[in-house]
Amino acid sequence: MAIYLALALTFFNFVGTTAARVVLTLYALELGASATAVGLLGGLLFLFPLLLSWPIGIAADRMGGRPLIMFGSVCGALSLTLPFFFASLPALYVAAALNGLALAFYHVTLQYLVGELSRPDERARNFSNFSLAGAATNFVGPMIAGFSIDAFGHAAASLIAASQPFIAVLLLLAWGRLFPPGRGEAARATGPGPRLIDREVVYMLILSGMVQLGYDLFQFYLPIYAHAIGLSASAIGAVLSTLAVAAFAVRMFLARLVKQYSGQKLLLAVFVMGALGYALVPFSSNAFVLGAIAFVFGLGMGIGIPLTVILMFDSSAEGRSGQTLGLRLTANNLVRVGGPIVFGAVGTALGLAPVFWIVATILGGGALLARSWRGR
What one-character DSSP code corresponds to residue 320? Predict the structure, then answer.
């Protein structure tokens, strides 16, 4: 029962977050915000996840999941209630920052709970279901936001989006006692130190960051490249949808794949297929070919993120799973913030094709690193 509660909380909280990104962005544009102002709004959504993921992971080990998810869910509901009462850019900035704070708390804590609530033989299946719930919210959240804005306006849409984390609050009030308590003094006794940053954890931090970089930049630069070669907006959307479909489909088989193959072999496949996808894009000038490349890329890289969560949990020391997963999210958020800036400069200086080939080389290096990784 507890694992199903964790998955339900994942769904409702992340629907609120994905809806918030659409509502807050379009609301800002409706209020006349500039592109720079909208960019600042987007940055605020990831500020607290970058700064707080590791400390929150430490807190999860000590306190357990229930109070942290409750705090995050309340922050999520409040963040989306503000724009209903205050139609101004400053209010949207506060809402974005508060929503990012909510994301920081429940993202780390929910991953921690899925791992803690799973027996070793169930862990791959439960993390697979966690990733599928998260993937479903990428569809449901924007749909709720878009239809609500068209039907009721931006202010009311923010309130409708706020209903999702509010449902999470109600679920926690009703069944939150099902979650295990924290480890208290036992976790405090193993506080941050050399055993956390051991060889296996360092390997997984690097590999996880590479996967995040590859997955995010592909979604960012593929539309730019497709537009540059003259594809229509609908064609670009169709190409990106093949990536989403492939990623969702392969995650349905993640538990089976983890049972049949070692983490090393799966990571190797992730990086090889990712590098191949990046390398082939600059040679493509057809929507169908790009769609096929995106589909293959999605089949490989689509399991990369949930797979690194599983392997990171398995690599964590006893009593440190929360802080280890928090450290992973900190590293990944650093990549998400810095990657587009660095490669944006590369694209401006050298053009789009070198960006794809440079990232293909990085992912190729990830494949070599994965070959040398043995795991616990």
Answer: -
